[in-house]
Amino acid sequence: MQSANMLLRRIVRSAVLPFAAQQGMKKDLFPHSRTLSLALCLKQDKSCEPSEKLDLDEWKKVMKSGLQEEVSGAVSEAKELSSLAAARETLEMWRLAGRAVPENISEEQLKAFMECPSKSAKKKYLKYLHLKELHKKNDKRKMDEKRERRLEAQDQASKTDETKKRSFICLWSSTMDKAYNWRAAQSMIFGQPLVFDMSYEKEMSVREVANTVRQIVQSESCNRRSVDPFHIHFCNFKEDSLYHREFIKNYREAWDKLLITVTDQCYTEIFPKDKLIYLTADSPKVMKTFDHDKIYIVGSMVDKSIKTGLSLARAKRLGLETAALPLEKYLLWSSGAKNLSLDQMMHILLTLKDTADWKKALEFVPKRKYCGFVNTPVKEMKKTLDVSNTLKLGKGREEVEKRFARNYPKTYKVK
């Protein structure tokens, strides 16, 4: 009986349980197996009658059917996999042969291909899949092209706006350049001459000459953009000099197109001496008004590196009249230096030429160099301050009032 029980358990584990799991009967089968084993155990405990026999025919049938179904399922899966592999190989061979075969095919489509009844039906099905794949690719390509065209249109629109702006700016700048050049050309015929003395190259280093040339370039640009420009002359200018090389570095191809006069002659050989005025800060004579009939000369040098009185000595040696800007007359100077750059001189002269207003002209002096601008001369202002201080102290009041009344009869009356 024990051997029969063991045999029954092996049969249940080996054949019946897998079959029940496939058929969804596992939950219902376990109670039957348990009741069967309990019945066997009870029969074992009791004194079994020799007439009772165990019926194993049904279990043999179940075992055989389960094994057959398991084997058939495995065989069918193997056949299906082999048939799918064979179908894929067939598709690959047809693709290499140049037939209309889709590049990508799913398992469902492959199964449908295998179920086709004839070879022509298979070809038509593959052709249908191939055309469908081509339509998808064409739709995707059209969408990509549409997207690219839209992006290109946006870029083109932005570029068009930029080109319009740039074209307008270029047109405006070219028009203004023509207007500026026309004024400069008119000044070469009818304009007032302004001379830059280029004879100070030996007194400066290479760096100082480069700095001087940059200031002259800014002065020429400011003069060209003014309403009534000067006719600029570069006198004592030597070919292949350091000045010349620095000008070519700054102007390049435009150097030969400048509307100025460049000569190696001295200004005394071109203009009459009685019309020449050398502007130098060392001159004892102060410039009061701007004279449109005179020809002013500016030394092309950096004031910081030149010795005091160099331009004044040159003007005296040539017998020329000198003048200095009335900076101390109208400006309350601080501790800064009183020298001006060449472009600042050009701004001041152009403003004096157009307006004859010293206040507007001296606005181009850097404000860091002076404390303020006064309408009355600084010396008279100091005298007024001294008189007021004396009045406050009460020393010689009457005498001071009389002297102040003599100096300023319109503003003060003696009681």
Automatic annotation (TrEMBL):
<feature type="domain" description="SAM-dependent MTase TRM10-type">
    <location>
        <begin position="180"/>
        <end position="372"/>
    </location>
</feature>
<dbReference type="GO" id="GO:0052905">
    <property type="term" value="F:tRNA (guanosine(9)-N1)-methyltransferase activity"/>
</dbReference>
<dbReference type="InterPro" id="IPR028564">
    <property type="entry name" value="MT_TRM10-typ"/>
</dbReference>
<dbReference type="GO" id="GO:0032259">
    <property type="term" value="P:methylation"/>
</dbReference>
<dbReference type="GO" id="GO:0005739">
    <property type="term" value="C:mitochondrion"/>
</dbReference>
<keyword id="KW-0949">S-adenosyl-L-methionine</keyword>
<keyword id="KW-0489">Methyltransferase</keyword>
<feature type="compositionally biased region" description="Basic and acidic residues">
    <location>
        <begin position="141"/>
        <end position="159"/>
    </location>
</feature>
<dbReference type="GO" id="GO:0070131">
    <property type="term" value="P:positive regulation of mitochondrial translation"/>
</dbReference>
<dbReference type="InterPro" id="IPR007356">
    <property type="entry name" value="tRNA_m1G_MeTrfase_euk"/>
</dbReference>
<keyword id="KW-0809">Transit peptide</keyword>
<dbReference type="GO" id="GO:0097745">
    <property type="term" value="P:mitochondrial tRNA 5'-end processing"/>
</dbReference>
<protein>
    <recommendedName>
        <fullName>tRNA methyltransferase 10 homolog C</fullName>
        <ecNumber>2.1.1.218</ecNumber>
        <ecNumber>2.1.1.221</ecNumber>
    </recommendedName>
</protein>
<keyword id="KW-0819">tRNA processing</keyword>
<dbReference type="InterPro" id="IPR025812">
    <property type="entry name" value="Trm10_C_MTase_dom"/>
</dbReference>
<keyword id="KW-0808">Transferase</keyword>
<dbReference type="GO" id="GO:0005654">
    <property type="term" value="C:nucleoplasm"/>
</dbReference>
<keyword id="KW-0175">Coiled coil</keyword>
<dbReference type="GO" id="GO:0000049">
    <property type="term" value="F:tRNA binding"/>
</dbReference>
<dbReference type="InterPro" id="IPR038459">
    <property type="entry name" value="MT_TRM10-typ_sf"/>
</dbReference>
<keyword id="KW-0496">Mitochondrion</keyword>
<feature type="region of interest" description="Disordered">
    <location>
        <begin position="137"/>
        <end position="159"/>
    </location>
</feature>
<dbReference type="GO" id="GO:0160106">
    <property type="term" value="F:tRNA (adenine(9)-N1)-methyltransferase activity"/>
</dbReference>
